[in-house]
Amino acid sequence: KIEPQKYSEFLILTLHKIASIYNKKERFDIAQKKYKEVIRYSREQNSTKYDEHIAKSLNALAWIYTKEPKLRDLKKAKEQLYQAIKLYSKLMRKNPKRFNTILSLSYSHLGYIATIEEESEIASKMYKKALEIVDNFNNNISYAIFLSKQKRYKDANEAFKSILKKY
Q: Helical H runs in 69-134?
């Protein structure tokens, strides 16, 4: 409070690290509160330099809202992912190499949620968008698994063969 310019970023990084630790320990209720604290405090700083911290926390919260049964709220998860995508898209214009992987992860996560909600067209679109941004192993595997869950076995087989050749 005395020197916010000097210590705000350090405080935000520390809060995010604490949230991440609780997340890894599967203490999702506490992690959720800490990520929200990071977002609130970052927004209070009223500076775009904190957008990355907000976006990371939004992504982490979205994952908690997707995977933790007690806190599951897919609508909230999607809202947070779309907010994160908006921030990451802005950040990518400045530094594409740094933010493209996490942006693609956000789209892949939206694909996963759409799969849960049995929205196969949206899921396919999101997985393809993730692959457009970053054609990496995780995105390819996610898409191939999606294809197999859709009983598109021929397409899934081709996707898995492509992954084996590539990686």
A: 74-94, 96-116, 120-133
